[in-house]
């Protein structure tokens, strides 16, 4: 398991920066594709690893991962099947010099052929990417237009700021997957 630190300057904070802990899951299907979540509010060409915040009701990080997979893929998976892949500390400073700190834990799971998945309540679609397409997603995050505004609840944010966080996260996932493939 590798640890990374990401420090970014943003204009405005967005949803996950208000949390202290966050989990993402690299779900690999039996064809080797990574399953990501799409949302109608995302800019064109953008999707994200499945996951979400760690709630105070979660007994452990793996319990949060299991809950997120149940919510987003509608499958119930034993906690022992998840493997911690990366830990990323995100430190963001906004234009008003407010600081935000978030730790994102990224887990890996290889799904079997019997697990029937479908989009859950937090994603509108599922996106299946191979490793090359994951690198294209990283490129798409880097190229989000500067002034593209999104709305998170009642707060506006800039998608470019979202890309400054999730582009590097997805890039580190890509590197970990490539390293994993090289070992096989």
Summarize this entry quickly:
The chain is of the alpha+beta class and 184 residues long.
Low-pLDDT sequence parts? none
* String of helices and strands: EEEEHEEEHEEH
Fourth-tier CATH superfamily name: Nucleoside Triphosphate Pyrophosphohydrolase
Give the distance, in angstroms, between the N- and C-terminal Cα atoms: 17 Å
Number of helices: 3
Q: Please tell me the overall pLDDT.
A: 94
Task: Please identify, by name, the CATH architecture.
Answer: Alpha-Beta Complex
Say what the CATH topology is: Nucleoside Triphosphate Pyrophosphohydrolase
Q: Tell me the fraction of residues in β-strands, as a range.
A: 25-35%
Structural class: alpha+beta
Can you tell me the CATH class?
Alpha Beta
Radius of gyration using CA atoms only: 16 Å
Domain module count: 1
For the largest beta-sheet, the strand count, sense and barrel status come to: 7 strands, mixed
Compute the number of strand runs: 9
- Give the overall silhouette: globular
Characteristic key phrases:
two-stranded antiparallel ribbon, 7-stranded mixed beta sheet, 9 strands, globular, alpha+beta, single chain, 184 residues, Nucleoside Triphosphate Pyrophosphohydrolase, 3 helices
